[in-house]
Specification:
This protein is α/β, with parallel strands linked by helices and 246 residues long. It folds into 2 domains: 114 residues, Rossmann fold; 116 residues, Rossmann fold. The chain contains 12 helices and 8 strands. The strands form 2 sheets. A 4-stranded parallel beta sheet has the order 2-1-3-4, with helices on both faces. Strands 6-5-7-8 form a 4-stranded parallel beta sheet. Helix 10 crosses helix 11. The longest helix has 16 residues. 47% of the residues are buried.
Length: 246
């Protein structure tokens, strides 16, 4: 099983420790992990802003760089969703079941559904509040959307419960949006911040020390409000917990 590690550009630039933790986690599971150094942006920001023509060369570059891998794995639900849904539309000569979109997984989805480890060996003696990001919930099935009114399941929680010492809790409105939403946070700034403050109020009510989730973008949005409002909680990407002490 040869795995190509896909690190989104904003993680590479702002949260390189998340990329490092992703590598440590996958390597600790006995996987053959490689990081193609020529990778750049997947094209999501341009396409979401309506400039799909500008996103196409980036999709073509990603397709070339990751062509040789059995799986492509990345620590970002939103970027993975864009590749899965956008690349069939962007790539010329698209081949179903052969192109990158058929082989790409969000890292927690991959560990939970494909690798299925019996244990992780991680230790994190802290109380964490689990944040379910919108793309992860409704596009990748990382947890059960509340509107379906079916028994709740969470792949993120399943993985966290394999970590020694951690106490996992969740906010009262488990899958309510934090307000980031990519371009939405720039175009509707005031609404985005209000949504973020509402979400943080629910996370704070759990008494957790950390908010954790699978999308650095959501965590970044909430951390900005935390810093501005001087709130007694921090954010931490879930792979940093799953890879702690490895």
């Amino acid at each position: 099983m040869k795995v190509g590690l896909f690190i989104p550009c904003y993680i590479n630039a702002v949260y390189p420790e998340v990329g490092e933790a992703s590598y440590r986690l996958l390597a600790s599971l006995g996987l053959d992990v490689d990081y193609p150094t020529g990778q750049t942006c997947c094209g999501q920001p341009m396409a979401n802003a309506g400039f799909e023509r500008d996103a196409r060369p980036l999709a073509e570059r990603m397709e070339r760089l990751f062509a040789a891998y059995d799986y492509v794995v990345g620590p970002s639900a939103s970027c993975v969703v864009f590749v899965k849904e956008g690349y069939p539309r962007l790539l010329d000569g698209y081949r179903e079941h052969a192109c990158i979109d058929a082989r790409i997984y969000e890292i927690c989805e991959f560990v939970h559904d494909v690798v299925r480890p019996a244990k992780l060996g991680a230790c994190f003696p802290h109380k964490v509040s689990l944040h379910n990001s919108c793309h992860g919930v409704r596009k990748l099935g990382l947890s059960t959307p509340g509107e379906l009114n079916v028994p709740y399941r969470s792949k993120l929680r399943d993985l966290l419960e394999m970590v020694d010492g951690v106490e996992v809790c969740e906010p009262s409105r488990r899958d309510e949006c934090c307000g980031f939403g990519g371009m939405f946070s720039a175009e509707e700034n005031a609404v985005s911040i209000r949504m973020g403050r509402d979400k943080l109020r629910d996370h704070l009510a759990t008494g957790a020390e950390y908010i954790t989730g699978a999308d650095s973008s959501c965590l970044m949005h909430m951390q900005g409000i935390i810093d501005h409002d001087r709130l007694p909680i921090r954010t931490l990407h879930i792979v940093q917990i799953l890879a702690s002490n490895l």
